[in-house]
Amino acid sequence: MRKMHYNEGMNIKLARQLIANELEEEEDEDEEMKDDTETEDITVDPPQDGK
């Protein structure tokens, strides 16, 4: 019985670490995407009529 409980405790600890790592990676990706959109400047020239 003790071994089963010990393994469950270790599994919970490992699961928490994995979840934390995944959340950090997602935040990093979100920041990278945010940086890309902020630095991207798009200029559009108004249409010029040739009259």
TrEMBL record:
Listed GO molecular functions?
protein phosphatase inhibitor activity
The cross-references to InterPro entries, in alphabetical order and at most eight, read: PPI-2 (IPR007062)
| GO terms of biological process kind | regulation of signal transduction
Give the superkingdom in one word.
Eukaryota
The UniProt annotation puts the region (Disordered) at 19-51
Q: Kindly indicate where the leader peptide sits in this chain.
A: none
Q: Is Ubl conjugation found in the keyword set?
A: no
User: Keywords assigned by UniProt?
Assistant: Protein phosphatase inhibitor
Q: Does the keyword Disulfide bond apply?
A: no
Point to the regions of Acidic residues compositional bias: 22-43
Query: What is stated as this protein's family in its record?
Result: Belongs to the protein phosphatase inhibitor 2 family.
- Protein name per the record: Type-1 protein phosphatase inhibitor 4
